[in-house]
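Protein Record: Sequence and Backbone Structure Tokens
======================================================
Tokens: labelled as protein backbone structure tokens, with as many entries as the chain has residues.
Task: work out the structure tokens from the sequence, keeping to the layout shown below.
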Amino acid sequence: MQRYEDRSTKNQSHATLFILLGFSSHGDLYIFLFLAFFLVYTFTLLGNLLIIVLSRMDSHLNTPMYFFLSNFSFLEICYTTVTVPKMLSDLFTGNRTISFCGCLTQMYFFFFFGTTEFFLLALMAFDRYLAICNPLRYQMIMSYKVCLLLVLCSWISGSLVPITPTSVISQLSFNSSNKVNHFFCDVAPIIKLSSDNTFVINLIVFMLSSIVVLSSILLVMVSYIFIICTILKIPSATGKQKAFSTCASHLIVVTIFYGTVIFMYVRPASSDSIDLNKVVSIFYSVITPMLNPIIYSLRNKEVKEALRKATRKLRTFENHSSVITSISSYKADLTTNKNGNEFRRSK
């Protein structure tokens, strides 16, 4: 591990290069941070890939709910991959420089996937509303084509939202400083570095963020208000528990994600802390994608059952493989013995 040195800034233009300060104030913890984030990232990839594979393999999971969940898991992989590999490279090599184009690209994709996540969470809440409040028409309304169209709209909308702020930021001048006090190219730290008037870009970012967050959270809240009202009307306690269990995992994920994002952006300016911002950013961009597979697997009986089936199939496959290997070895021994006997007779 190398500690970062400022020699990487020499003879380089502030307009074409940024330096991600990251966790420079915690140089003694570089090895620990690298190992911790590496393990978290690995678990995130494996956990979300497991959800995707199970949703495709198990016929019982071929439903709209798990179609959205598999897309959400793929989105989480993309979301965390935008920032974590670069952060791991910075911690390992000590070279925290990033080109201006690379910074803009990271910024765009971070908010592309983040915006898409808001839309997908809202869609999943709407899906649960239809399943619980309108079960007789659920299968007819949420056909495969409708689900595919809704997911495509979420991804396309998410890709369009960051275009304007990214384009405006690309036209700003950065002559005063090129040191970004963050571990990735977030919008706010980048805007602070500009020597231009940033009122317009701040207004654009605020308006777009407000529209995305408020519209999605409104759909989620309305959906769950109807869901709760419907569940309360169910006479039996078992029926209430069964109905609530189908949306409990999603509700936990929504609470964690929206809670951290709102805490990050809806605070008085006087309480703004750079170190606190980094911690909160780590939580919703690194920790939350890791928690989602755990939440959905532990809280969902169908996912746990699919995992048990997959484990049994894997064990059966391993047993068959060992049997085939044993038979092959036995045949090889017979052939060897036969050849040996023929050789001795020829003598």
Notes: Residues 1-14 have pLDDT under 50 and may be disordered.
